[in-house]
């Protein structure tokens, strides 16, 4: 598991996960990201502004399904029904212009509701500098 592009550990280490998430949420140096979305036929148009973003940072924008299930037929989870939240279905790396603005078009599946998430990453190692999420969007 990786939290904020900085801390990595075995995902089953519950205490490490709680500590990393707690520390990440306590950060006060996150850069703001303004995220706007609108439907355009089967696509979602995304516009983002990230004032203060370093020139070499990049923006990642993704459509995530609110909920999903899977039923593996093999392996350690074979025969079980697994429940998932915020499953990424469409991911785009977006270049920011000199005004710290970038946009993308995402194509959500027809499966159900979801949202758009965006995060700003430092070019030197992927440290997460800021993040934003839209409200739930229906499909």
Structure in words:
This protein is mostly beta strands. The chain contains 1 helix and 9 strands; from the N terminus they run E-E-H-E-E-E-E-E-E-E. The chain folds into 2 domains: about 1-30, no CATH class; about 30-135, Sandwich (Immunoglobulin-like), CATH 2.60.40. It has one helix at about 15-25; strands spanning about 1-5, 5-10, 35-40, 45-50, 60-70, 80-95, 100-105, 115-120, 130-135. The strands form 3 sheets. Strands 6-5-8-9 form a 4-stranded antiparallel sheet, with no helix packed on it. A 3-stranded antiparallel sheet has the order 3-4-7, with no helix packed on it. The protein has a two-stranded antiparallel sheet with strand order 1-2. The longest helix has 13 residues, at about 15-25. The model has no long low-confidence stretch (mean pLDDT about 90).
Give me some keywords for this one:
139 residues, mainly beta, Immunoglobulin-like, 2 domains, 4-stranded antiparallel β-sheet, 3-stranded antiparallel β-sheet, 9% helix, flat
In short:
The chain has one helix spanning about 15-25, and strands at about 1-5, 5-10, 35-40, 45-50, 60-70, 80-95, 100-105, 115-120, 130-135.
Gross CATH architecture of the largest domain: Sandwich
Tally of helical segments: 1
Q: Kindly, what is the distance between the CA atoms of the first and last residues, rounded to a whole number of angstroms?
A: 30 Å
**What is the average of the pLDDT values?**
90
Total strands: the figure is 9
SSE class: mainly beta
Largest sheet: 4 strands, antiparallel
State the CATH class of the largest domain. Answer: Mainly Beta
Rg over CA atoms: 17 Å
CATH topology term of the largest domain:
Immunoglobulin-like
Q: Quaternary status of these chains?
A: single chain
Q: Which overall shape is indicated by the principal axes computed on the Cα atoms?
A: flat
Fraction of helical residues: under 10%
């Amino acid at each position: 598991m990786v939290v904020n592009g900085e801390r990595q550990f075995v995902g089953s280490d519950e205490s490490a996960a709680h500590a990393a998430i707690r520390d990440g949420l306590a950060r006060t140096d996150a850069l703001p990201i303004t995220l706007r979305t609108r439907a355009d036929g089967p696509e979602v148009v995304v516009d983002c502004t990230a004032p203060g973003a370093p020139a070499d940072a990049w923006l990642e924008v993704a459509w995530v399904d609110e909920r999903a299930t899977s039923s593996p037929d093999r392996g350690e989870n074979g025969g079980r029904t697994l429940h998932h939240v915020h499953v990424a279905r469409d991911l785009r790396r977006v270049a920011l212009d000199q005004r710290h603005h970038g946009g993308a078009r995402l194509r959500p599946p027809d499966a159900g509701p979801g949202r758009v998430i965006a995060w700003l990453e430092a070019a030197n190692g992927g440290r997460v500098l800021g993040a934003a999420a839209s409200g739930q969007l229906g499909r």
